[in-house]
Design a protein that fits this description.
- The complex is a heterodimer of chains A (407) and B (262).
- Chain A has 3 helices and 32 strands.
- Chain A has helices spanning 2-18, 25-49, 51-54; strands at residues 65-66, 70-74, 79-84, 90-95, 122-124, 127-131, 136-141, 147-151, 165-167, 170-174, 179-184, 190-195, 205-207, 210-214, 219-224, 230-235, 245-247, 250-254, 260-264, 270-274, 293-295, 298-302, 307-312, 318-323, 333-335, 338-342, 347-352, 357-363, 373-375, 378-383, 388-392, 399-404.
- In chain A, the strands form 8 sheets. In chain A, strands 1-2-3-4 form a 4-stranded antiparallel beta sheet, with no helix packed on it. Chain A has a 4-stranded antiparallel beta sheet with strand order 5-6-7-8, with no helix packed on it.
- In chain A, β17 and β18 form a beta hairpin.
- In chain A, α1 (2-18) runs antiparallel to α2.
- Chain A starts with a helix and ends with a strand.
- With 262 residues, chain B is an all-alpha fold.
- Chain B has helices at 3-25, 30-44, 46-73, 77-91, 99-120, 124-131, 138-143, 160-177, 185-208, 211-232, 237-240, 242-246, 251-261; strands spanning 149-150, 153-154.
- The longest helix of chain B has 28 residues, at 46-73.
- Chain B is built from 13 helices and 2 strands, in the order αααααααββαααααα.
- A two-stranded antiparallel ribbon of chain B has the order 1-2.
- The chains are: A mainly beta (407), B mainly alpha (262).
- Chains A and B meet through α1, α2 and α3 of A and α3, α4, α5, α6 and α8 of B.
Chain lengths: 407, 262
C-alpha cells in the first residue's frame, strides 16, 4: 500500500517535471499532481466507501405485534410505536432509550445511536417487552408508557436478535453470547440461564415443559423450562437461525446447511431429513433463515434462494416447490387454508399446496424481513425501505390501511 | 447489468467464496484464511509489485541528477525541460511507470478488503446480504458461520493494539521505500506529511473497522516490508534508526554493490 503511495508521489513528481516547458507550468503541475494522486485516492476512497455496502449498519427489522387495542412495533429509528389497529393512526411513540452510544469513526461501523430491534415485541398484561441489539430488555407499560430496562448481562458485551417470548409469566430471551435467559416478569430478575456453544439468534419456542432453541453452534437444544437444564441436543451441519416448529411429537428445524430435520420431541432422535441422502431435484440452494410453518401436514419452508419447499411432515418427501420473486427472510403466517409469505423484494404471495396455487396478492416494492403477523384475518407487514406498516386482506390483497413510520 | 453488479459477480463473489472455503480447510480459522489469502494474492501480484518497486527505485535514483540539472540551468526553463526529457529518455523511465501496476493492483486490494468485511458479517443485515454472495458449494455452507476468534482477537470488532500495529508497519514500509533524500524542500515536506498522515489515517480506519481487516493490512504490510528489504534493504528506515541498523546486516549496501558489479 505504501509502495503504491510512494510510487504515486514519484509519478506525480515526474508528471510535474515532464511538462516543465511552459511558463505557467506551476498551475498545470498542480492539476496533474491532483490527477495523479486521484488515480490512487479515488479508488481508495471509493473502496472504503464500499463499507456502506459491506459493513451495513444495524438498523433492525422489528416484527409487528397486534392485540385487541393496537398494533405495536419498533421502528428503524429506534422508537416504540403504537398504531390504532382499526385505521392505522398513530396512538403514541416512545424513543427506546439507548444505554450505550458507541458510534465509531467515520460512521462506518455497525454501532448505531438508536437501538436496533430485530425481534417482535411480546405483550403480557399490558406490558410490552422488547429485546434490543444493545443487549437490553425493555418493558413498557401500554397505558402509562412508563418503562423499565435491564441490561441482560452487565459483564458480557452482547446483542439480542431473536424475539422475546412470554410463557406463563416468564420471559425467555436468547443472546449473541450464546445464552438463553429465563427472566421473571415484570421484575426482569434472572431465574436461570443456559449456555450454548455459540451465539443465538433464534426466537425460542416453548412447548409443554420444554423450550427449544437453535444456535450458531449448529445444534438445536431442548431445555427444561423450569431449570434450563439440557434435555437433549441435536447437531445439524449448519448454524440455526430459524425458530423450530412443533407438530404433535415432532420438532421441525431448518438449518443453514440447507436441510430440514424432523426430530422426536422427547429424545431428539432424527426421524427424517430433507433433502435426504439420495439425489433430489430442486434442492435448496441457500440458507433457511425464516421459520417454516405447518398446515395440513405440510411443512412450508421458505429459503433464501427464493423458493418455498413444501414437504410432507410424515416422511420428509418433497410435495412441491413454489418459486417466488426473491429470497425469503421473513417468517410466513397461516391464514385459514393459505400461507401468506413476503419476499425480500416486498411481494406478498398466497400459497396453497393442495391446489398447487401461488397467487401474488400485493407488491409493496419495499424490503420485508420482519416476521409477518396475523390477527382476525388481517395480515400486518413492516416494510423497511420507505418504512411503513401495512394491514392487508390476505384473500384479496386489499390494503385496509397503510401508515408510514417515522417520516 | 450495472458496473457494481459486474464487480460483485466477477471479482467480489469469487474472492468471498474462496475466503470462506479456505477457512474450512484451515481448521475453521478465519484469521488464518485472511493471512493465507493475502499471501496468495501478494504472490500472484509479485511481478507487478516488483515492476513497481523497480520503477520507484529508478525514479528516486534519478533525483540527484534532476537536481543537478536544476542548478545548472537555473532560470532557463526551456533548456531545463529539454535536459530533463533527455535524462528520462536515456534512463528508459516513463514518468507514469508506477501507475500501471498500481492501477491493476488497487482494485484487487479493494476487492479483498470488501470480501473480508462481507464475510465477517458482524450483524444480521450483513449476514442476510452475505447469503446473496454465496455459491451453492457444500463447503461454503459447512464453513459458515466462521469462527471470528483468532489469537487474542475477535475479528468482528476493532482492536486498538492491531490498529497501532497497522500504523507502525505502514510507517516502516513507507520509510523503507524512500531510498534517496529528497532535495526539493516542497517535495520533501509533502513526502514527510504523507509518511505521517497515511499511517495515522489507517490507524483510525483500523479502529473503526472489524479487526479482521486490520489483520489483512498488517499481513500485507509485513509482506511488503519483507519484499522491500530483499529489494533495496532498509532504505530510509536506516536513517531513522542509525544506531540500531548499524548492528543489523547491511542489506542495502550489498544490493547496491551487486548492482554496481552487474
Amino acid at each position: 500500500m505504501h509502495d503504491v503511495i510512494h510510487g504515486m508521489k514519484v509519478a506525480t513528481i515526474q508528471c510535474q517535471k515532464n511538462i516543465n516547458k511552459e511558463m505557467h507550468m506551476k498551475i498545470r503541475n498542480k492539476l496533474i499532481s491532483l490527477s495523479c494522486l486521484g488515480v490512487f485516492f479515488i479508488p481508495l476512497i471509493l473502496g472504503l466507501a464500499g463499507c456502506s455496502n459491506s459493513t451495513v449498519q444495524s438498523m433492525g427489522w422489528s416484527g409487528v405485534m397486534p392485540d385487541s387495542e393496537g398494533v405495536y412495533l419498533a421502528s428503524l429509528k429506534g422508537n416504540l410505536i403504537a398504531l390504532n389497529g382499526a385505521n392505522g393512526t398513530q396512538l403514541w411513540e416512545i424513543p427506546i432509550e439507548s444505554t450505550n452510544n458507541s458510534g465509531n469513526f467515520l460512521g462506518c461501523s455497525t454501532a448505531t445511536a438508536s437501538v436496533a430491534i430485530y425481534g417482535t415485541p411480546a405483550i403480557d398484561e399490558d406490558i410490552i417487552y422488547l429485546a434490543g441489539y444493545n443487549g437490553v430488555i425493555y418493558a413498557y407499560d401500554k397505558n402509562t408508557r412508563l418503562s423499565k430496562s435491564k441490561i441482560l448481562d452487565e459483564n458480557d458485551q452482547q446483542s439480542i436478535v431473536g424475539s422475546p417470548v412470554i410463557h406463563q409469566g416468564i420471559l425467555y430471551v436468547t443472546s449473541t453470547n450464546g445464552k438463553v435467559y429465563a427472566l421473571e416478569t415484570p421484575s426482569l430478575d434472572k431465574l436461570w440461564e443456559f449456555t450454548s456453544g455459540d451465539k443465538i439468534w433464534t426466537t425460542p419456542v416453548v412447548q409443554g415443559q420444554t423450550i427449544f432453541v437453535g444456535s450458531f453452534d449448529k445444534k438445536l437444544y431442548a431445555l427444561d423450562i423450569t431449570t434450563g437444564e439440557e434435555k437433549w441436543s441435536f447437531a445439524t451441519k449448519g448454524a440455526i437461525v430459524a425458530s423450530p416448529i412443533i407438530d404433535g411429537n415432532t420438532v421441525i428445524v431448518a438449518s443453514f446447511d440447507r436441510h430440514i430435520y424432523a426430530l422426536d420431541i422427547e429424545k431428539g432422535n432424527l426421524l427424517w431429513t430433507y433433502p435426504g441422502s439420495e439425489t433430489v431435484p430442486n434442492t435448496p440452494q441457500k440458507w433457511f433463515w425464516a421459520s417454516p410453518v405447518i398446515y395440513d401436514n405440510h411443512i412450508y419452508a421458505p429459503n433464501m434462494d427464493g423458493n418455498v419447499y413444501v414437504i410432507d411432515i410424515q416422511d420428509g418427501s418433497l410435495i412441491t416447490t413454489f418459486e417466488l420473486d426473491s429470497g425469503i427472510s421473513s417468517s410466513p403466517v397461516v391464514v385459514k387454508d393459505k400461507i401468506i409469505i413476503a419476499t425480500e423484494k416486498g411481494t406478498i404471495y398466497s400459497l396453497q399446496a393442495e391446489t398447487n396455487l401461488r397467487t401474488e396478492i400485493k407488491s409493496l416494492n419495499s424490503k420485508v424481513r420482519s416476521a409477518l403477523a396475523v390477527m382476525s384475518d388481517t395480515v400486518y407487514i413492516h416494510t423497511l425501505e420507505n418504512e411503513a406498516v401495512y394491514a392487508l386482506n390476505p384473500e384479496t390483497g386489499v390494503v385496509y390501511w397503510y401508515t408510514p413510520i417515522d417520516e | 447489468m450495472d458496473i457494481g453488479a459486474l464487480w460483485d459477480l466477477i471479482i467480489l463473489q469469487p474472492i468471498t467464496n474462496v475466503l470462506i472455503s479456505l477457512s474450512h480447510y484451515l481448521w475453521g480459522s478465519f484469521g488464518l484464511a485472511i493471512i493465507v489469502l493475502t499471501l496468495v494474492v501478494n504472490g500472484l501480484l509479485y511481478p507487478l509489485t516488483l515492476k513497481q518497486m523497480r520503477a520507484t527505485k529508478a525514479s528516486q535514483d534519478l533525483q540527484p541528477k534532476l537536481e543537478a540539472l536544476k542548478k545548472k540551468h537555473g532560470q532557463d526553463a526551456q533548456a531545463l525541460a529539454q535536459e530533463q526529457m533527455k535524462l528520462y529518455s536515456e534512463s528508459g523511465l516513463s514518468p507514469a511507470g508506477c501507475l500501471l501496476p498500481m492501477l491493476i493492483q488497487t482494485p484487487i486490494w479493494i476487492a479483498l478488503y470488501q470480501a473480508i468485511i462481507r464475510v465477517m458479517a458482524v450483524n444480521p443485515e450483513s449476514f442476510v446480504n452475505l447469503s446473496e454472495f454465496l455459491y451453492s458449494w457444500d463447503i461454503v455452507y459447512k464453513a459458515l458461520p466462521l469462527n471470528n476468534n483468532f489469537l487474542w482477537l475477535n475479528l468482528a470488532v476493532p482492536d486498538i493494539l492491531l490498529a497501532i500495529l497497522v500504523g507502525l508497519s505502514m510507517w516502516i514500509q513507507q520509510k523503507m521505500t524512500t531510498t534517496q533524500e529528497i532535495v526539493d524542500p516542497q517535495q520533501r515536506a509533502q513526502s514527510q506529511t504523507m509518511q505521517v498522515m497515511m499511517p495515522l489515517m489507517f490507524v483510525f480506519l483500523s479502529m473503526s473497522f472489524p479487526s479482521g481487516l486490520a489483520l489483512y493490512w498488517i499481513t500485507s504490510n509485513t509482506i511488503r516490508i519483507a519484499m522491500q528489504y530483499f529489494f533495496s534493504g532498509w532504505g530510509g528506515l536506516s536513517k531513522s534508526f542509525k544506531g540500531l541498523f548499524n548492528m543489523l546486516p547491511a542489506r542495502k549496501s550489498q544490493t547496491s554493490k551487486s548492482r554496481k558489479n552487474k
